[in-house]
Write a structure and sequence with these properties.
The chain is built from nine helices and eleven strands. Strand 5 and strand 6 form a beta hairpin. The strands form two sheets. The chain has an eight-stranded parallel beta barrel with strand order 1-2-3-4-7-8-9-11, surrounded by seven helices. The chain has a two-stranded antiparallel ribbon with strand order 5-6. Helix content is 37%, strand content 20%. It is α/β, with parallel strands linked by helices. It has a single domain, classed as Luciferase-like domain (TIM Barrel), CATH 3.20.20.30. The protein is globular and about 60 Å long. The chain starts with 5 loop residues before the first strand and ends in a 5-residue tail after the last helix. Pfam families: Bac_luciferase. This is Probable F420-dependent oxidoreductase, Rv2161c family. It comes from Halorientalis regularis. GO terms for molecular function: alkanesulfonate monooxygenase activity.
């Protein structure tokens, strides 16, 4: 197989199926099956009122409910750093404006240190307005607060001790130790807006998106490369797609969907993603049953990951 591709597994930190045991089982299964990373989403709170504006559902209906367990993503990844050895551990995506930037930088640098440099820092401005209300953060400032943090975090990783004067936060010289080796965590930006592509080119190493098919990935990457050129970036950005999978000839899912069907068909799907510029495919699941998720991880590892 000529294509180079990284593979990841999406871990849910909220929902009825979320638990410390589930996190450990799925993460260690992914590592054992040859995956490169384990990523998890971020919510601080699930309010009773959730807008029907979920960006990854055609109907806008979200899968969240106020009664669901909700785990802190940095606590989960710190826990997994102790029970894994090789897989990268990442946020996909951390909603930047939810936290004070100094606190968020400390969270990120802690996971980076505890994992011996295996942290992937996926970030985005967020979408759930009622969650912003719970946290007393102005929803309309989410973009500028994300830019502010990325500027501050880049400096903190490079310099170790900085003072900062931004549009939303200012502080005297303070330390961000332990500072990471090299350039710090890989930074991924989520979203499809022009601002998302600009942020990726200005601050990031890669772009990440949910569910898109290869043609949409190719179109998004073209927009990203325009921004990449504007900022005179060298090399090529990473591109990740998160997509639910169901491996096997016993699936009742639509076989025309990417990553659904027998391994040979899924390998062809991933080749199409690679041709579109994708460098990492992160699998999600159609099921919340942890045993079934692990079975899918193992099937994908044996039949797909090993082909690349």
């Amino acid at each position: 197989m000529s294509s180079e591709m990284d593979f990841g597994v999406m871990l849910s930190t909220f929902g009825d199926h979320a638990s410390p045991e589930a996190f450990r089982r799925v993460a260690t299964a992914a590592e054992g099956a040859g995956f490169d990373s384990v990523w998890a989403g971020d919510h601080v709170s699930l309010p009773a009122e959730i807008p029907d504006e979920y960006p990854f559902s055609p109907s806008g209906e979200s899968p969240f409910h106020v009664s669901q367990d909700t785990y802190d993503v940095f606590g989960v990844l710190s826990h997994l750093a102790a029970v894994t050895d090789s897989v990268d551990l990442g946020t996909n995506t951390c909603i930047v404006p939810y936290r004070h930037p100094v606190v968020l930088a400390r969270n990120a640098l802690t996971v980076e240190a505890l994992s011996d440099g295996r942290f992937d820092f996926g970030v985005a401005p967020g979408w759930m307005e009622t969650e912003f209300e719970v946290l007393d953060v102005p929803f309309e400032e989410r973009g500028s607060r994300t830019d502010e943090f990325l500027e501050m975090f880049t400096r903190a990783c490079e310099e170790g001790q900085i003072s900062f004067d931004g549009p939303h936060h200012s502080f005297q010289e303070t330390g961000f130790h332990p500072t990471p080796d090299d350039d710090g965590p890989t930074i991924w930006l989520g979203g499809k807006s022009g601002a998302a592509f600009r942020r990726t080119a200005q601050f990031g190493d890669g772009w990440t998106i949910f569910w898109d098919r290869p043609d949409a990935i190719a179109a998004g990457r073209e927009r990203l490369m325009n921004a990449w050129t504007d900022f005179e970036r060298e090399g090529d950005p990473e591109v990740a797609v998160i997509r639910a999978t169901e491996v096997g000839d016993d699936t009742e899912r639509d076989p025309e969907k990417p990553l659904v069907g027998e391994p040979e068909k899924i390998v062809e799907d991933i080749e199409a993603y690679a041709d579109a510029g994708t460098t990492r495919v992160v699998i999600d699941f159609y099921t919340t049953d942890i045993d079934e998720q692990i079975e899918q991880v193992e099937r994908f590892g044996d039949g797909v990951v090993d082909a690349f």
